[in-house]
Amino acid sequence: LPNRFNKMLSFHSFPKDSELRTQWLIKIRRDGFTVTTSSRIYSRHFETGEIFVSSSGKRCLQPKAVPSLFHWNNFSKKTERLGVWERRPRPVHTVAMATVD
């Protein structure tokens, strides 16, 4: 249900797919919460790329979108940590090519 006074805000129903719904429930961290047909999640909990505007002007979620932005993570996602191979400086080796006669 888009807010007619603010085109940047929207509320989104829980997915019908049980696996995706479970992911949402884990992310929202609400003990004892039961999803009903009127349960909604505010658009602020989704990354910008997970929301698009349909041809009819409705703000919709990408099919596999999962809410990830909450007050406990300061409404931001951690940047992915580089693997050990990328974090460590590596010496540059020059390899002499052996010629075969």
UniProtKB/TrEMBL annotation:
Residue ranges occupied by any THAP-type domain in the UniProt entry: 1-70
Main subcellular localisation: nucleus
Domain of life according to the entry: Eukaryota
Database matches in PROSITE patterns: ZF_THAP
SUPFAM superfamilies: Glucocorticoid receptor-like (DNA-binding domain) (SSF57716)
Coiled-coil stretches noted in the UniProt entry, renumbered to this chain: none
UniProt entry keywords in alphabetical sequence: Cell cycle, Coiled coil, DNA-binding, Metal-binding, Nucleus, Transcription, Transcription regulation, Zinc, Zinc-finger
Pfam families documented for this protein: THAP
Family membership: Belongs to the THAP1 family.
Protein name: THAP domain-containing protein 1
Organism: Oreochromis aureus (Israeli tilapia)
